[in-house]
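in:
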């Protein structure tokens, strides 16, 4: 199933209807299926990792903007203690494992507004703690360029 944003983050059925989804929508959908079927030991995780050009296929966007990495929020499943990334056929959690900065467990309904707010707050604190010269708005705009690049089929 291709990578792409769905028309409505809160409607997990769109993963099937639109035949596409992001890491958030696809993994929230799978977690919801597990919940409804009472399958234990399936956790939906938001991991903040150092998104860079070697662990995520985002082209030269960061290099062109003089940035080493952007803290990116990525959803995946933890099943009985093992992490799984079903974002795309070629997704492999080991690509980001060593770049993880933080992980939290969430419920499927939290992949919308909660995830966005959590991610933005993490970046704002990280920028403040690192005394960065780039603003949040500038960094978020560069991040959006990366997401658009990924949505064009480069994943």
């Amino acid at each position: 199933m291709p990578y792409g944003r769905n028309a409505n983050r809160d409607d997990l059925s769109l993963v099937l209807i639109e035949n596409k989804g992001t890491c958030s929508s696809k993994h929230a959908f799978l977690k919801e299926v597990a919940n409804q079927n009472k399958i234990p030991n399936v956790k939906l995780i938001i991991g903040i990792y150092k998104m860079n050009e070697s662990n995520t296929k985002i082209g030269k966007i960061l290099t062109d903007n003089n940035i080493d990495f952007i803290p990116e929020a990525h959803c995946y499943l933890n099943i009985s203690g093992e992490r799984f990334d079903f974002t795309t056929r070629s997704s492999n959690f080991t690509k980001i494992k060593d770049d993880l900065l933080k992980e939290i467990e969430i419920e499927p309904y939290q992949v919308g507004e909660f995830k966005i707010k959590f991610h933005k707050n993490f970046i704002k604190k990280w920028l403040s703690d690192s005394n960065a010269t780039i603003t949040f708005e500038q960094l978020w705009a560069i991040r959006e360029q990366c997401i658009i690049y990924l949505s064009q089929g480069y994943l």
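note: The helical segments are 14-17, 23-36, 61-64, 94-97, 113-129, 136-154.
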